[in-house]
Amino acid sequence: MDTHKEVEDSIKRILWAFNLGLQLIKETGESKSKGLTKKLATRHTIHEEMVRKFRVLADTNRGFSREEMDEQFRQFRMKGRSLDLSHFIRSLAVPRGSVRNSILRKALARNLSSHQLQSLIASRQPNQKRAGRKPKVMVSDNFDMVLGRLVWSWARILSANLEVNKISNPQLEDAVKKMQHLMKLILKHSRSVDS
Question: Deepest in the core among 60, 126, 151, 159, taking most CB within 10 A?
């Protein structure tokens, strides 16, 4: 449980960003030019990326309405805990409406960090195509060793997730076991290069 002051401070910070977003929308209209974003960031002493995020936060189509904000704040006060601004920013990845509101309610009820909220959002959209950053490609004289380290990392992440989650599809479970076997094989051969 947060103290009353912590809840109110969180609400003030979120409202500050929301109101600044409204002001930024008024100042920029439909324009999204880089020069203007930079000028606004300097004028309001915030980072350029925050100009973009605060605009979306207050956007009537993609962000939140004041009524939606007030409903979230009512939940904060009722539960005696709050989310922070980063929760609201991350929730913008979900289209406006009941799904987003439901995710924020779960984050509040389960006391999720903003990173955990992001994982929850990603788990609800597992089949997105062309999402995320372009993978960084490494150029190496000893790619076998690089590959071994990469597969070791994947195996570790997979193992940690399988410890806390159950696979319900038997065919998928079989495929994962085969993949784990192949990972062990790759690790065995990449270690022989290491020695």
Answer: 151
Dihedral sign of CA atoms 158, 161, 163, 169 in order: negative
Distance CA 93, CA 17 (A): 17
The residue behind tokens 């903003």 is: 114
Count the neighbouring beta carbons within 10 Å of the beta carbon of residue 13.
Answer: 14
Determine the Cα–Cα distance for residues 89 and 104; give it in Å rounded to an integer.
11
pTM of this structure: 0.62
Q: What percent of the chain has pLDDT over 90?
A: 38
Rounded to whole angstroms, the Cα distance separating 8 from 53 reads 22
Distance CA 6, CA 179 (A): 47
| 119-156 pLDDT, tens digit each | 888 877 655 555 556 666 767 778 888 888 889 999 99
Query: Residue by residue, what is the 3-state secondary structure of 69-109?
Result: HHHHHHHHHHHCCCCCHHHHHHHCCCCCCHHHHHHHHHHHH
What are the C-alpha distances in Å from 76 to residues 2, 3, 18, 109, 184? 10, 11, 17, 10, 47
53: Cβ–Cβ under 8 A, 6 or more apart, which residues?
89, 92
